[in-house]
Design a protein that fits this description.
It comes from Halogeometricum pallidum JCM 14848. One of its GO terms (biological process) is D-gluconate metabolic process. This protein folds into 2 domains: about 15-195, NAD(P)-binding Rossmann-like Domain (Rossmann fold, 3-Layer(aba) Sandwich); about 205-355, N-(1-d-carboxylethyl)-l-norvaline Dehydrogenase, domain 2, CATH 1.10.1040.10. The chain is built from 15 helices and 8 strands. It has helices spanning about 15-30, 40-55, 65-70, 80-90, 105-115, 130-140, 155-160, 170-185, 200-225, 235-240, 250-260, 285-295, 300-315, 320-330, 340-350, and strands at about 35-40, 55-60, 75-80, 95, 120-125, 145-155, 165-170, 185-195. Mean pLDDT is about 85; it is low at about 1-10, about 15-20 and about 355-380.
């Protein structure tokens, strides 16, 4: 049911194989690496910072001025200046796109590929729907350009220090991009999963697992709050203790502890837990996973219920949504409370609308059958 078989088994053309060989020789001789990044928000910007710190020259495009990134040594140009981007990168060019999922990817990809040459590589590092990624790979390959669907995990903190990458796409394209991804990933945090679409598919499954884990931790908070013991002053320390040797030790448990104690990235969170908005936004990609599971009769009750709990958070005063909101802020700097831009991406992020259920679509209203086109890319993929 979840197979992502891709019928195009064409081998890389001779020009691409030559480019890959020459690139490996360049890398092995430690000549300067140059990377293009389209979208310099929370994820793209931190990846750019990390790359520069590791002696990779970065040329970026963004819809906003980014003086802080320019001060860090990143060459920043205006959004849409793909001709400049192509001129500044050494062939075979490697470009990482860090944009919100949806038709925006298609629009920017069309412009970018028009400036690239055969054997160049484009990576989509956002949370795109994997069927969209299969189609985009075919579109790029028609021009001889490699397209890698690059699931990226770890949020802004890990993007700055070492991310986790799950990559789908042709082996030859992956080998060209591998030196960059290996440099920017945490140790053992890079895998070439397989054929086109598989990288974004496994990232989607990852996000489903993440949702289930968030919900179980949040329900633990709910139980601690509702119990007969007054633990309010000890809960942060309790989660810290659990994160040292307990079976549930994890980054999310660490974030829950820091969130309850207003430490590190939670310094801007409400001081009192009860003041954390219990409205939890998300960009909707796990909804796609649940829909596909239903279509294939694959039981995923925990992931499904975690999505339902997010729906329920939008209008109640329970503690569990607050806990989820704190942890999501910790790993992705996701906002507290409602945010219109994120809500929009929940609706428009999936371009392949086969069997899509859109609660906002009114029967007979043809204008709602396709997501509204967005002209800028001021935003970030979710974590």
């Amino acid at each position: 049911m979840f197979a992502v078989n891709h019928g195009d088994a064409r081998a890389a053309p001779p020009h691409a194989r030559t480019a890959m060989h020459d690139y490996k020789e360049t890398y092995m001789s430690e000549q300067e690496l140059t990377l293009g990044i389209v979208g310099l928000g929370k994820i793209g910007g931190n990846l750019a910072r990390q790359a520069v710190e590791k002696d990779i020259r970065v040329v970026g495009l963004d819809a906003e001025d980014r003086p802080e990134l320019e001060e860090a040594g990143i060459e920043v140009h205006d959004a849409g200046e793909y001709e400049t981007l192509a001129e500044e990168l050494d062939p075979p060019r490697v470009v990482y796109m860090s944009l919100p999922a949806g038709e925006l990817i298609d629009d920017q990809l069309d412009e970018l590929v028009g400036e690239l040459d055969e054997g160049d590589v484009v990576m989509d590092g956002g949370n795109s729907f994997w069927r969209d990624s299969i189609r985009r790979e075919e579109r790029c390959w028609d021009e001889g350009v490699y397209f890698l669907d690059t699931g990226t995990s770890g949020g802004p903190p890990r993007a700055k220090d070492g991310a986790c990458f799950m990559v789908g796409g042709k082996e030859e394209g992956f080998e060209i991009a591998e030196p960059y991804l290996d440099t920017l990933s945490v140790e053992d945090g890079l895998i070439h999963v397989g054929e086109p679409g598989s990288g974004h598919f496994v990232k989607l499954v990852h996000n489903g697992i993440e949702f289930g884990m968030l919900q179980s931790i949040a329900e633990g908070v709910e139980l601690l709050k509702a119990g007969q013991f007054d633990l309010d002053g000890e809960m942060g320390d309790l989660f810290e203790t659990w994160n040292n040797g307990a079976v549930i030790e994890s980054w999310l448990v660490e974030l829950m502890s820091k969130g309850l104690k207003n430490e590190d990235q939670f310094s801007d969170a409400p001081e009192n837990f009860e003041d954390v908005p219990n409205f939890v936004e998300d960009t909707g990609e796990v909804n796609w996973l649940v829909q596909e599971a239903f279509k294939g009769e694959t039981p995923v009750p925990v992931i499904t219920q975690s999505v339902i709990e997010l729906f329920k958070s939008r209008g109640n005063q329970k503690h569990a949504p607050r806990a989820v909101a704190l942890m999501r802020h910790g790993f992705g700097l996701h906002p507290f409370g409602e945010q219109e831009g994120i809500m929009d991406e929940r609706i428009t992020g999936r371009v392949d609308n086969d069997a899509r259920s859109d609660i906002r679509q009114e029967e007979g209203d043809e204008d709602t059958l396709r997501p509204e086109k967005r002209e800028s890319y001021d935003g970030d993929p979710d974590s």
